Amino acid sequence: MGLEQEKKMAAIKSVALVKNGMLVGLGSGSTAAFMILKLGEEVAKGLSIKGVPSSDATAKLAREVGIPLISLEEAMKLDINIDGADEFDSSMQLIKGGGGALLREKIVAYNSKYNVIIADSTKEVRRLGKFKLPIETIPFATKNIIGELTEMGLKPKLRLVKGSPYKTDEENLIVDLDIFEWDDIPNLNEMLIRIPGIVETGLFLDSTDLILVGKGDSVIKIEK
Ligand SMILES: O=C(CO)[C@H](O)[C@H](O)COP(=O)(O)O
Fold first, then answer.
1. Which end of the chain is more exposed for a tag (fewer CB within 10 A), N or C?
2. 147 is in an annotated binding site
3. Does 210 lie in the same domain as 192?
4. What is the pLDDT of residues 20-79, one digit of tens each?
5. Is 46 annotated as a binding-site member?
6. Where in the sequence is the domain holding 120, given as residue range(s)?
7. Rounded CA gap, 153 and 175, in Å?
8. How far apart are CA 80 and CA 25, in angstroms?
9. What's the confidence (pLDDT) of residue 224?
10. Average pLDDT along the chain
11. Does 86 contact ligand 1 (Cβ within 6 A)?
């Protein structure tokens, strides 16, 4: 079974958790896209929900497939949020932000009563950090932040797209960090978030209720 199939199976399983009347956080990335397509099919068949997108790209796709959208401030609290991840460990700690949407994704997750992660089997790791940790930074401070994080041994790299800095939906910049050698991840997260100009990190710690992982031809559940 290919990775795309694993993503799709996890995505389809997650949509079964969405019930009539729910306010739904819509994640970003290729796995979340499978979920949005399936949710669109269910809406076409009569499922009545409203979605809060975690990125401009997700908003566009959701509109294309007919999912009614509302803003986070209209929704206030979401019933369920379904999103992908770049890595997760056995304690359900995540690295997210490979697609650059980590800030809104974290806000949507924080404002959701139940957080579901959907992933293919390659996302499961024994130790977080093979995937470089994305952080979102204010452009005014990015060079200084890179200087400070270099001194901390985190090998920061400004994310580029076709040679130019990648801009987030909030017009910020992403810096990718090598955290593989760090043992105390919660402490690292605290240190990072205290540096002025770092808006958010891609470490999603203790925010996930359920992970659905496509593995071969089945979907494995990891629960709190
Ligand atoms: O955090 C994300 C985007 O900011 C995505 O959820 C993460 O990158 C996983 O993406 P994919 O499902 O394409 O592997």
1. C
2. no
3. no
4. 999 999 999 999 999 999 999 999 999 999 999 999 999 999 999 999 999 999 999 999
5. no
6. 3-126+205-216
7. 14
8. 6
9. 83
10. 98
11. yes
Task: Residue 22: give its domain's CATH number.
Answer: 3.40.50.1360
Nearest CA to ligand 1 atom 3: 99
**How far is the CA of 152 from the CAs of 23, 148, 155, in angstroms?**
41, 7, 8
Residue type, 147: G
Number of domains, the chain: 2
6 lines ligand 1 (CB under 6 A): no
Residue 209 domain-assigned? yes
Active site residue 105: yes
- ipTM of this model? 0.98
Q: Whose CA is nearest to atom 10 of ligand 1?
A: 29
Residue nearest to atom 6 of ligand 1 (CA): 84
pLDDT for position 25: 99
Catalytic position from the list 6, 105, 136, 200: 105
Ligand 1 centroid to residue 33 C-alpha, Å = 10
